C-alpha cells in the first residue's frame, strides 16, 4: 500500500484529490486503489469516511473506484487542455452522482445546505462525495482554475490570487523540476 500522508492532499478539491491517488501519471505506479485498505485509508485521510465508521457491507468493487477516478482525471485533464471531455467519462461521474443524490440528505450549513450521507456506510459510499464534488465542479466551476502538474499529472484547483499555480506542490514537483533544470543548465555550460 502506498504511504498515505496528509501532505498529498494538494488538489484543493475532493474529486481532484481522488484523481491524484496514483503517484505519477502516466505510469500510474503507487496506486492507492489497488487494495480496499488503500481506498479506505485515503477516504479517512480525505475526511470522506470518519475514523470510527466501518465500511463493510456490500463493498465497492475496486474497479468501480478506479473507473470513477480515471473518468474524473480524463474529464478535468481534457478541460485543462481546452478539449471537450469524453461523454462516457462525464456519464460515469453523473451516474455515480445520481446514486449519491438518492442516498443523501440535506443539512443546513451557514447560508446554504450541504449533502450528507448516513454514517454507517458501505465502501461504495466512499465514491458518493467524490462524484458530488466532481459534478459540482463541472456545473459551477471555476473550470478556468483547474490545473494539471506538468511533471506528475496531478490535478489541482488553483486558489492563488493571481492564478499562477503551476505545480502540484513546490515541494514535490516544482523544486525537483527546478533543480533538474538548474543542473541541466549548469552542465550545459561545462
Ligand atoms: Zn506534480
Characterise the protein shown here.
- The chain has 190 residues and is an alpha+beta fold.
- The protein has one domain (6-188): Orthogonal Bundle (Jann2411-like fold).
- The protein has helices spanning 14-19, 36-45, 62-80, 87-103, 127-140, 170-188, and strands at residues 22-24, 29-31, 105-109, 112-116, 146-148, 155-157.
- Strands 1-2 form a two-stranded antiparallel ribbon.
- Strand 3 and strand 4 form a beta hairpin.
- Helix 4 crosses helix 5 (127-140).
- The protein binds zinc ion.
Topology:
Layout: H1 14-19, E1 22-24, E2 29-31, H2 36-45, H3 62-80, H4 87-103, E3 105-109, E4 112-116, H5 127-140, E5 146-148, E6 155-157, H6 170-188
Antiparallel strand pairs: 1-2, 3-4, 5-6
This protein binds zinc ion.
Zinc ion binds at residues 149, 151-152, 154, 167-168, 172-173.
Give a brief description.
Helix 3 (62-80) crosses helix 4 (87-103) and helix 4 (87-103) packs across helix 5.
Mean pLDDT over the full residue set: 87
The name of the CATH topology is Jann2411-like fold
The molecules bound to the chains, other than polymers, are: zinc ion
Q: What structural class do you assign from the helix and strand content?
A: alpha+beta
At CATH level 2, the architecture is Orthogonal Bundle
Which strands sit side by side, in order, in the main sheet? 1-2
- Overall 3D shape: globular
Q: State the helical fraction.
A: 40-55%
Radius of gyration over C-alpha positions, nearest whole angstrom = 18 Å
The count of DSSP E runs of length 2 or more, i.e. the number of strands, is 6
Secondary-structure element order, N to C: HEEHHHEEHEEH
Separation of termini?
Answer: 43 Å
| Low-confidence runs of at least 5 consecutive residues | none
Helix tally? 6
Described by strand count, sense and barrel closure, the largest sheet is: 2 strands, antiparallel
Number of domains: 1
Strand content: 5-15%
**In CATH's first tier, which class applies?**
Mainly Alpha
The CATH superfamily is known as: Jann2411-like domain
Amino acid at each position: 500500500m502506498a504511504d498515505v500522508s496528509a501532505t498529498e492532499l494538494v488538489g484543493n478539491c475532493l474529486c481532484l484529490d481522488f484523481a491524484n491517488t496514483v503517484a505519477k501519471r502516466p505510469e500510474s505506479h503507487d496506486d492507492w486503489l489497488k487494495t480496499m485498505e488503500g481506498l479506505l485509508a485515503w477516504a479517512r485521510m480525505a475526511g470522506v469516511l470518519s475514523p470510527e465508521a466501518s465500511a463493510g457491507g456490500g463493498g465497492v468493487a475496486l474497479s468501480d473506484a478506479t473507473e470513477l477516478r480515471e473518468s474524473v482525471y480524463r474529464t478535468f485533464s481534457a478541460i485543462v487542455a481546452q478539449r471537450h471531455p469524453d461523454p462516457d467519462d462525464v456519464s460515469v461521474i453523473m451516474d455515480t452522482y445520481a446514486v449519491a443524490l438518492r442516498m443523501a440528505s440535506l443539512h443546513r450549513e451557514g447560508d446554504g445546505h450541504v449533502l450528507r450521507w448516513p454514517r454507517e456506510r458501505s465502501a461504495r459510499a466512499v465514491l458518493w462525495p467524490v462524484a458530488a464534488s466532481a459534478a459540482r465542479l463541472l456545473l459551477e466551476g471555476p473550470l478556468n482554475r483547474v490545473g494539471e502538474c506538468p511533471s506528475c499529472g496531478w490535478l489541482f484547483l488553483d486558489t492563488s490570487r493571481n492564478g499562477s499555480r503551476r505545480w502540484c506542490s513546490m515541494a514535490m514537483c516544482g523544486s525537483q523540476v527546478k533543480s533538474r533544470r538548474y543542473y541541466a543548465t549548469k552542465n550545459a555550460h561545462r
